[in-house]
Backbone:
């Protein structure tokens, strides 16, 4: 919310300044002072015009100060969010997403939600290149949360390499109508990335934006 307000305010202040004067705040002030210095003493500028220019300068200055204050507030908020994300390390989370971090040996639990009852459900697990490595089917599921435990093997029953994988869920009702399915990324947080504007939590080989987290569980 604050990001949006700051961006809008910065743009509005800058736009208004340029539209009104064609100059930024400092240039406007310098030009105004030079105008005072070089006015004709025998034909001084009308005082009402001076007042109008001063009022305009005041408006520009207020807009600039407001923008700066909001930017400082946003920076403080982002720093606070980044620091608080460190507290997630060592905790189990569930987030909106389709990532799977497979360590090469431990089974991975895939969680998803069905918006309606499904007669047929197909779960497709893909590697980092997008190639499907495992496809499984489930049937007769009610609406709500469900899970599938993947043993880390491909369709041929061979173990796959450790790394990042994704999964997709497609479902249909008994009448053949598609049922909406949402997937979740779950796992233990072992690190935090602060390189982008939005902090991201790392779960082994998978990265999850902090804003996608929907539940946290202490172990």
Residues:
């Amino acid at each position: 919310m604050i990001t949006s307000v700051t961006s809008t305010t910065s743009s509005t202040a800058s736009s208004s300044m340029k539209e009104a004067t064609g100059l930024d705040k400092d240039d406007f002030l310098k030009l105004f002072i030079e105008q005072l210095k070089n006015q004709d003493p025998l034909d001084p500028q009308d005082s009402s015009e001076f007042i109008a220019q001063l009022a305009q300068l005041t408006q520009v200055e207020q807009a600039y100060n407001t923008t700066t204050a909001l930017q400082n507030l946003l920076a403080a908020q982002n720093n606070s969010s980044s620091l608080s994300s460190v507290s997630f390390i060592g905790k189990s989370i569930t987030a909106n997403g389709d990532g799977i971090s497979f360590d090469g040996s431990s089974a991975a639990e895939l969680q998803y939600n069905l918006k309606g009852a499904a007669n047929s459900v197909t779960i497709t697990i893909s590697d980092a290149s997008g190639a499907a490595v495992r496809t499984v089917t489930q049937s007769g599921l009610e609406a709500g949360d469900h899970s599938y435990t993947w043993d880390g093997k491909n369709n041929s029953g061979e173990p796959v390499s450790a790394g990042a994988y994704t999964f997709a869920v497609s479902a249909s009702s008994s009448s053949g109508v598609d049922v909406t399915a949402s997937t979740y990324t779950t796992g233990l947080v072992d690190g935090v990335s602060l390189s982008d504007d939005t902090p991201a939590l790392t779960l082994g080989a998978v990265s999850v934006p902090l804003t996608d987290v929907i539940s946290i569980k202490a172990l």
